[in-house]
Amino acid sequence: MNIKKIIVLLIGVGILAPSCTKEFADINTNPNNTPNALPQQLLAPALVNTLSTNMVRNRNFNNELMQVTVDVNDSEGKVFRYDFRDSWSDYTWNGWYSQLTNFKDLYKSAADPVNDNSTYRGISLVCQAWIYSLLTDTYGDVPFSESNKSRDEQIYEPKFDNQKDIYQGLFAMLEEANALFKLNKAIVANSDPIYAGNITRWRRFCNSLYLRLLLRVSGKSDVANDVVAKIQQIAGNATEYPVFTSNDDNAVLKWTGVAPYASPFVTAVRDQDFRVPAIGSFFIDRLRDWEDPRLNIPVYGKNGSNRLGIAPASGLFIGVESGYLPGTGVVRNAYFYSMSQTVTVNSVAYPAQSLQLEPLTGMIMNYAELQFILAEASLRGWITNPADVYYKNGVRGGITQWLPNWPNGTAVTTVPTSTEVTNALNAYLTFTGMDWDTGLPLTDLMERLHVQKYYAMFLVDFQQWFEYRRTGHPILHKGLGLRNNGVMPARMKYPIYVQSTNPTSYKKAIAAQGTDLISTQVWWQKP
Q: Is the C-alpha dihedral spanning 256, 257, 258, 264 positive or negative?
């Protein structure tokens, strides 16, 4: 085997990709991490490592593009100005493809007659569809049908499939997974850090993810009819295609702080770095003006901190306008507390509530996002249930995933009645001016829907960025210092090393998709 093939083989199985966590280093290098390992040995490490990749780049890439944070700095190469180095592409590409090898090994192990477990196979397919969707929505055309086959089939230069074909493949994966979950084969509960072996909830996640991906390509005329028909089928048949029914179904790996489930915000981000970015005006100003309970300290906070762990600036929640011109003297205002900080209340110092230690940061998909997907499907006339019902469910779900006892305060132990929650929700929407008004034009309703969806998808990998690229909502502030002609980047460029290790497929990909630039739109973005 020549040296070029050796390099590609190492890349294909993820050995060159640095792990985001240290806890599973032994598992990722010892002989058990092979297709011969038991399914229950493979699942948790792959989930932890995938979420670690997602969370690190959500923090310093998605949040900067989508004005959640602003890394206040006048130097070059700042993401919030749509200006980032080509090397940014490597981290997610390596992280995602290396974990695809592990999920594919999970499928093979579970398909072995000795192990024979349909549920683990279904979980593998759902997780593969999830990761491949992140890859194609980030880069466009990517290796799919021939990816991760260097070890078993000696495919060292996999072709780049076009995004349309990739999406058809993802839909097929999710269909198969849904059927496999119906067989209800038990798995080892402690091998599953998402649902502890609850097959019903894995199936609901499978079909909720299916709806996310269907909606993403629903604007393409060449697939729209089939996509809408499938959305109607899933939304109209909860028996055959069960979906999330409440926040209890949220797909989230809840970090415990104990290895191997220590958050990458602790293991991969330094304490002093976590608090560096300022909170963006777009993110914080609305929550402040809405008097949102997630920012409310006296009623819904704890020991002087609000639920989202945001430190005020001189007692006020003030954001920084994103995309500002260098040299304008902008200073950091509100920011996210790090885990070492304290808040003093009545001369007593308490640990600040920090997202570094927050279990919910391991979010993959939630009930609120699903409700906003269904609200948009209704708004567009694809399903008959009223859009306002889904919309209100989404707003409520977005708040109560952080404050389960809302509208009761943290000091109140009684669970609020459904009437109390409904009344509080209606009052909140009226006060904020975000109530559903069927007399508004479609674009105005889409803006309201996607403003709320933006907050529901806070911390969820790149979903805010993907949805903005799909819809143009919510309408972001356009600073004078933006690069890329002031246009939101449409993709990441391919990693530089791909050009040398897989030159033939790379050249075919850019010939089909367009120049390898951040401004080149992917298939589902193009008119």
A: positive
Helix or strand run (H / E) with residue 231: helix 224-235
Query: Is the pLDDT score of 14 beyond 80?
Result: no
User: Cα–Cα distance between 84 and 298 in angstroms, integer?
Assistant: 40
Largest CA distance in the chain: 70
The DSSP line for 413-481 is -SPPPHHHHHHHHHHHHHHHT----TTS-HHHHHHHHHHHHHHHTTTSTTHHHHHHHHH--S-----TT
What three-state secondary structure class fits 349? strand
**Among residues 130, 478, 124, which one has the least CA distance to residue 323?**
478
Q: What is the pLDDT of residue 36?
A: 75
Q: For a pLDDT cut of 70, what percent of the chain falls above it?
A: 93
Rounded to whole angstroms, the Cα distance separating 265 from 356 reads: 5
- Please give the DSSP secondary-structure letter assigned to residue 302: B
Spatial distance between the Cα atoms of 363 and 373, rounded to a whole number of angstroms: 17
Q: What is the CA radius of gyration of the chain?
A: 23
Do 336 and 355 touch, CB atoms closer than 8 A?
Answer: yes
pLDDT for res 34: 52
Contact 519, 484 (CB under 8 A): yes
pLDDT tens digits, residue range 146-199? 999 988 899 999 999 999 999 999 999 999 999 999 999 999 999 999 999 999
Give the tens place of pLDDT for each residue, 96-130.
999 999 999 999 999 999 999 999 999 999 999 99
Burial letters 226-240, b for 16+ CB under 10 A, else e: ebbebbeebbeeeee
pLDDT tens per residue, range 228-266: 999 999 999 999 999 999 999 999 999 999 999 999 999
Instruction: Give residue for tokens 């949040």.
Output: 63
Amino acid at 479: G
Coil/strand/helix, residue 229: helix
CA distance 365 to 453: 12
Residue 378, both tokens: 């209704």
Peptide bond into 39 cis (omega under 30): no
Q: Which residues contact 30 (CB under 8 A, 6 or more apart)?
A: none
Q: What angle do CA 388, 393, 395 make, to 5 degrees?
A: 95
Is the Cβ–Cβ distance between 166 and 142 less than 8 Å?
Answer: yes
Mean pLDDT along residues 459-473: 98
Q: Is 70 helix (H, G, I), strand (E, B) or coil?
A: strand
Asked whether 242 and 384 are in contact (CB, 8 A), the reply is no
The answer to whether 428 and 370 are in contact (CB under 8 A) is: no
Task: Spell out a b/e string for 138-174, using b for 16 or more CB atoms within 10 Å of the CB, else e.
Answer: bbbbbbbebbbbbeeeebbbbbbbbbbebbebbbebb
**527 confidence band (pLDDT: 50, 70, 90):** confident
Neighbours of 336 (CB within 10 A): 24
